[in-house]
């Protein structure tokens, strides 16, 4: 297939964003999507990592129901082209088109279960995704229902505020393995997109599988509330937001902060609000609720189980954070008598 817009069946659909590869185009016919990576050395290298990881995942994921399936890849005029199965919109795009309204809790449960199954599967293969976020989780189908929205929010345009979209199917697949890495000792370079970045990454303490689990926790909160949990672009503010939502960072982690991060710590605690860059920054932190309150605002039933699960996924110390397999055994996923009929 081509990517020229002259054919009636194939077309360049959109820029998929400025992700790991810089600008990425997405093209499709009825069955396939193609990612075209710019012919620059570092992007080509990341693309070849992605091809390698996708092929390995495909060999082990026989049903093809966890991660996006690679169909083929080829090198065209120095551009790496990766051919995928065609899927629906990302969770982020779905939220955006839905005026950032939250998903019903039962849908969050089904998406969370599949996401953790994918992460457990990758971790079993000694792979760490390192860039889990709503943009990298795609609904398999783009079909949705419109249902009345009883929590009409002030930020919705009037004409659409009485209805919200619910995906017809909860089936998801994880994409974008260009930053995926094998587990090695002492990896300390910066990984993850800012909002989903774990505290050990910011503090320069080295990271491993648990950094994916932290990202999953942030994603589940976002699906429940409609908005990213930590909306920040700066390290100290980010750590202060964590403390506001989750309580104080452990002293042993602050003490071990590397030379880049030690400036955020003073006398064994976070240098906040003294070190804040602006009053707006302090206000942004102060307005955040505690995790329990945030979830209670948005979730009607099974809130207690979800809060308990999130507290396990968002533990500061990566050694104490739940593994993906432990999380899947949590009552939030297993307690059947709480299911809505």
Automatic annotation (TrEMBL):
UniProt xrefs under InterPro entries: CLK_kinases, Kinase-like_dom_sf, Prot_kinase_dom, Ser/Thr_kinase_AS
Segments forming domain Protein kinase: 10-333
Catalysed reactions listed for this entry: L-tyrosyl-[protein] + ATP = O-phospho-L-tyrosyl-[protein] + ADP + H(+); L-threonyl-[protein] + ATP = O-phospho-L-threonyl-[protein] + ADP + H(+); L-seryl-[protein] + ATP = O-phospho-L-seryl-[protein] + ADP + H(+)
MF GO annotations: ATP binding; protein serine/threonine kinase activity; protein serine/threonine/tyrosine kinase activity
Record-listed E.C. numbers: 2.7.12.1
Segments traversing the membrane: none
Pfam families noted in UniProt: Pkinase
Record key words, sorted: ATP-binding, Kinase, Nucleotide-binding, Serine/threonine-protein kinase, Transferase
Highest taxon of the lineage: Eukaryota
PANTHER family xref list: SERINE/THREONINE-PROTEIN KINASE DOA-RELATED (PTHR45646), SERINE_THREONINE-PROTEIN KINASE AFC2 (PTHR45646:SF7)
Entry's family note: Belongs to the protein kinase superfamily. CMGC Ser/Thr protein kinase family. Lammer subfamily.
Name of the protein in its database record: dual-specificity kinase
Species of the source: Sesamum indicum
């Amino acid at each position: 297939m081509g990517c020229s817009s002259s054919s009636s069946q194939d077309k360049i659909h959109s820029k998929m964003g400025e992700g790991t590869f810089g600008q990425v185009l997405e093209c499709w016919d009825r069955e396939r999507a193609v990612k075209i990576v710019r012919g620059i050395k570092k992007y080509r290298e990341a693309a070849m990592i992605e091809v390698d990881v996708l092929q390995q995942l495909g060999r082990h994921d026989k049903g093809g129901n966890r991660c996006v399936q690679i169909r083929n890849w080829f090198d065209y005029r120095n551009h790496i082209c990766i051919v995928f199965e065609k899927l629906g919109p990302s969770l982020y795009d779905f939220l955006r088109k839905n005026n950032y309204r939250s998903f019903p809790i039962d849908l969050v449960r089904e998406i969370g279960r599949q996401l953790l199954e994918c992460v457990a599967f990758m971790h079993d293969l000694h792979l760490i995704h390192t860039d889990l976020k709503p943009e990298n989780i795609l609904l398999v189908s783009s079909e949705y229902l419109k249902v009345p929205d009883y929590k009409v929010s002030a930020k919705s345009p009037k004409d659409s505020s009485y209805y919200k979209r619910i995906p017809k199917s909860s089936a998801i697949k994880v994409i974008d393995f260009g930053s995926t890495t094998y587990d090695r000792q002492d990896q300390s370079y910066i990984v993850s997109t800012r909002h989903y970045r774990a505290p050990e990454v910011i503090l320069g303490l080295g990271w491993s599988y648990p950094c994916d689990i932290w990202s999953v926790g942030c994603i589940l909160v976002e699906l429940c509330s409609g908005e990213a949990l930590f909306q920040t672009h700066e390290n100290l503010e980010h750590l202060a937001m964590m403390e506001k939502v989750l309580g104080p960072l452990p002293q042993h982690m602050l003490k071990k902060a590397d030379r880049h991060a030690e400036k955020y710590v003073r006398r064994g605690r976070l240098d906040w609000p003294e070190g804040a860059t602006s009053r707006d920054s302090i206000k942004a932190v102060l307005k955040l609720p505690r995790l329990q309150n945030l979830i209670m605002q948005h979730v009607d039933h099974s809130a207690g189980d979800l809060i308990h699960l999130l507290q396990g996924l968002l533990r500061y110390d990566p050694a104490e954070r739940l593994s993906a397999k432990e999380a899947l055994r949590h009552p939030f996923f297993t307690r059947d008598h709480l299911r809505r009929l």
